[in-house]
Task: inverse folding
């Protein structure tokens, strides 16, 4: 662009008119960068007005972009979780909105319960409406890119309800516990540890612990619930669900229907660069798929959970960011692909009842419920509901090396393999859908939980839903709540109670 063109640009800029059909090269941009301050000096009033207008337009564009991505997640999160709280937990809708959905940005949402069709609808200022529907036996499902009619018409052949009076059976087959506990347990110290957790704050926020169950050598030695919750209240496990999904993969491995070394049977990956991804890499979160697990901002995980009816298909279509097996990246999408693999492996007819018949009912977890996405695949990454005692039973299965009532439910070596990190996991803090007591990100020589033995591993969900398994201390500890607590401190205090006799 020559000096004459520069003159045209200057003329139009000062006259506040657009320059028609001119592409500005870098040289002209630099030229304008020099000239704009000169214009501001010569005509400061108009420049300020123009700058303010541009700034307001940029702010409006940013707000619009955020609303476009975030509002559906806010509406979907609130509608889905309120639906499950009302119809599965039998909680008061107003109390759930006040307690569980009160923080920003969820507080922007408005939510209403429709008892006529067992649904909950959410929106933000009337925009981005999302509806979640309740179906007996399978919980709540968010309606998004599937129609409500499509979802309601899905056949779901669930197993028959098991008629068991658990109060009459001893733990862990039932819920009857003895009046005395092991002499190895200092009851005063243990109760103090539980009380501290029940009333703890973490990062200037009340943790709102709702349930704690402590097992020592398989027996319940400590238990407490917040007001409104008890041993019969099912609670959301969030990503504890991933560990449940990993166990179901283990069942299929024991039956010889899957092998962790096999390439993952994902139809979309045939004849692509992703066809070499293995089941082990899905279990260990090393697939290389581009997936961002960020709940504070719009990301792949919020898009998947609140906008997509077929969550596994959404994740399977994502491109590779890294070569499979070379990088650790925690992803709910990987687990939902595993969940769909389970569906394809057992077949459509048996799939709805498979989790209960193959795993949960075998270990006396009769409260467990998994919720499906709109396509009918269980959301293996996130949506499981069970009592605190049933989550403890699941931890006890792993503590007992996959054996229950003398039956080998999981492969003989499954638990040992579960606690082995991938070579791609520099922190050594993840196994087969379980977290490990690996190393801190900023201090690679320091354990993640420095006061807890290295053999501790745990199922962990958003907000501090946890099943801690510490074999060397003979402990299984369940903690469920609304917000996280100082987990290292809590476990340290629990261990202190079982290393000193009362």
Result:
């Amino acid at each position: 662009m020559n000096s004459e063109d520069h003159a045209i640009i200057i003329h139009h800029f000062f006259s506040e008119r657009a320059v028609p059909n001119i592409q500005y090269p870098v040289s002209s941009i630099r030229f304008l960068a020099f000239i704009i301050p000169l214009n501001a000096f010569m005509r400061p009033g108009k420049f300020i007005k123009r700058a303010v207008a541009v700034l307001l337009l940029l702010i409006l564009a940013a707000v619009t972009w955020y609303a476009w991505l975030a509002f559906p997640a806010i509406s979907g999160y609130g509608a889905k979780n309120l639906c499950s709280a009302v119809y599965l937990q039998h909680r008061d809708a107003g109390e759930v909105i006040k307690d569980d959905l009160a923080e920003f940005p969820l507080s922007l949402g408005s939510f209403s319960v429709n008892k006529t069709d067992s649904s909950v609808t959410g929106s933000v200022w009337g925009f981005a409406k999302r509806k979640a529907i309740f179906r007996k036996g399978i919980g709540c499902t968010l309606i998004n890119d599937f129609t409500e009619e499509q979802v309601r018409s899905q056949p779901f052949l669930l197993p028959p309800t098991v008629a068991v009076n658990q109060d009459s059976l001893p733990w862990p087959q039932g819920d009857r516990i003895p009046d005395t506990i092991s002499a190895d347990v200092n009851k005063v110290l243990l109760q103090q540890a539980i009380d501290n957790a029940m009333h703890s704050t973490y990062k200037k926020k009340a943790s709102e612990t709702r349930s704690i169950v402590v097992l020592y050598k398989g027996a319940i030695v400590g238990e407490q619930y917040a007001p409104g919750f008890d041993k019969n209240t099912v609670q959301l496990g969030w990503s504890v669900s991933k560990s449940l999904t990993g166990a179901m993969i283990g069942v299929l491995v024991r039956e010889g229907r899957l092998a962790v070394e096999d390439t993952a049977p994902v139809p979309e990956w045939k004849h692509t660069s992703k066809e070499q991804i293995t089941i082990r890499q899905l279990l260990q979160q090393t697939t290389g798929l581009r997936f961002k697990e960020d709940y504070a901002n719009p990301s792949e995980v919020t898009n998947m959970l609140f906008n997509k009816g077929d969550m596994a298909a959404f994740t399977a279509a994502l491109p590779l960011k890294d070569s499979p097996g070379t990088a650790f990246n925690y992803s709910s999408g990987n687990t939902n692909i595993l969940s769909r693999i389970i569906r394809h492996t057992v077949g459509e007819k048996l799939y709805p009842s498979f989790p209960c018949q193959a795993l949960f009912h075998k270990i006396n977890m009769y409260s467990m419920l998994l919720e499906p996405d709109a396509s009918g695949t269980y959301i293996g990454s996130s949506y499981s509901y069970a009592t605190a005692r049933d989550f403890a039973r699941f931890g006890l299965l792993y503590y007992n090396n996959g054996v229950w009532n003398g039956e080998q439910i999981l492969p003989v070596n499954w638990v040992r393999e579960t606690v082995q990190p991938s070579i791609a996991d520099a922190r050594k803090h993840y196994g087969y859908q379980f977290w490990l007591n690996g190393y801190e990100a900023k201090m690679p020589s320091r354990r993640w939980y420095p006061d807890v033995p290295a053999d501790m591993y745990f199922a962990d969900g958003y907000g501090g839903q946890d099943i801690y398994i510490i074999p060397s201390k003979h402990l299984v500890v369940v903690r469920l709540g609304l917000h996280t607590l100082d987990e290292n401190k809590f476990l340290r205090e629990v261990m202190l109670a079982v290393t000193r006799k009362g």
Observations:
- The longest strand covers residues 127-135.
